[in-house]
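Title: Comparing notes on inverse folding

I've been comparing how different people in this forum approach sequence design from structure. To keep things fair, I'm posting one structure and asking everyone to reply with a full sequence. Here's the target:
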């Protein structure tokens, strides 16, 4: 004759499963970087004429998701080929975004300029890296279709 399982045994299993579920939900997910690429216009509209207007239609946007401002002075943006933009003295306010354009222009709180005479971002696929020294804080990659990447 077999005995029915005791109620205490069932409660132990339920408590164990509840503890496991709590432990799994308490594990932190990989946090997104506070400073990150949010959009890349890697293929400027129209023909690639190399005009400053066309060069400035190619840009990357970085957003600060922190609740405090972040000093980006000396940080860099790099592509796979090795082109590097170094931030001038610049502070990105909390919750704000800045676009870094390929061409020339007057730097402001919302727009910075790389001052290059030709395009940086490959229309056939590339990766943008946001770095502080040797630490990569974010990256955004795209393939050969389209002209805009939301990161």
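Reply #1:
Here's my take.
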């Amino acid at each position: 004759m077999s005995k029915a399982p005791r109620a205490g045994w069932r409660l132990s299993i339920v408590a164990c499963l509840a503890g496991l579920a709590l432990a799994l939900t308490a594990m932190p997910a990989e946090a997104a970087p506070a400073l990150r690429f949010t959009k890349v216009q890697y293929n400027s509209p129209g023909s690639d004429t190399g005009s400053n207007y066309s060069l400035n239609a190619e840009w990357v946007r970085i957003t600060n998701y922190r609740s405090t401002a972040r000093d980006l002075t000396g940080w860099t943006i790099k592509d796979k080929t090795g082109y590097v933009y170094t931030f001038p003295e610049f502070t990105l306010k909390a919750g704000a975004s800045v676009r870094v354009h390929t061409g020339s222009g007057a730097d402001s709180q919302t727009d910075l300029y790389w001052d290059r005479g030709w395009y940086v971002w490959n229309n056939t696929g590339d990766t943008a890296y946001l770095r502080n020294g040797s630490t990569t804080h974010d990256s955004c990659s795209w393939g050969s279709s389209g002209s805009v990447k939301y990161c």
